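Researcher: Please predict.
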Amino acid sequence: MTQNLSAVSAPLVSVSITAYNSAAWLSRALDSVLSQRTTFPMEVIIGDDCSQDETVRIAHSYREKHPGLIQVFERSVNVGIQRNYYETLSRCQGKFIAWLDADDYWTDPEKLTVQVQLLESDPSISVCAHRVRWITVGGEVTRVYPTIPAGRYGLERIVRHDFIPTASAVFRNGLQGDIPPWYFDIAPTTDWPVWVLSALRGDILLLDRVMADYWLTPNSACWSRGDLFWYQMDARFYEHIESIIPAKWHRLARAEKGKRYEAMAYALRKQGDFAASREAAWKAFRSPQLMDNVGSKMKALIAAVVRETEWRLKGAKPAVGASR
């Protein structure tokens, strides 16, 4: 922790940390913030969602050691991940917000300095992100993400895919009022709408530098639920996204939604849920314009109908584990 890592009345950076039953990891996250070498004023906002373990006690112990830097907002009832994110972000007073979940942590003490300098030097950058390592609870590095080339990206790229790790992002404050009501209905898709809204205001800069670890904890993430789960989450996001992007991008969003439904149809067929596969394939066919993804969506629909017909002719006995 540097001597200047302290809060004043007008912090330049707000670190938003959301927590729920995060006692096992919160100290590590906070220590990674305190290890940042900075020369600008900061604040750390911890939003706890009615944890039932020692999370709040740990948060207050850090606040007592750093009373001018750390603030703790605890709830008497659980409000859910989306509301906790939103309300914690809304309490941030800094020009920039650095987003960090309690079970993740930063690994480079120069992270904030590097990103803030870039944002300050170029007002056309709305979000500055970097690569992160995915780490298992056993300490194994499973991948470095994202894999796309470093550089500047606009709205088109973030509409196609959420490539920004939350723990990597520093972004300009002031988006909270633009967050749509449906944001609170699409958990656990927490950050993607924020990046889309940010991209409406400026570019996304991805740095070719690893400066954080994303911790793959069984209780705090959905990473282990399989591809089908994420296809479903993406499709649900695309069902809403058109309300926050200009009309000229609606066709792109629908095409991407169609691709997710195609992938869902295939995954459901593999599970033996042929009726659901056909329903997803039909949504894939209807989502884009007629000639968008025409070959793949026709293939998905025909395959789904054929397999469902075969299934029904055999007596309509769903496969073990199929969702009905």
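Model: The two ends are 54 Å apart (CA to CA).
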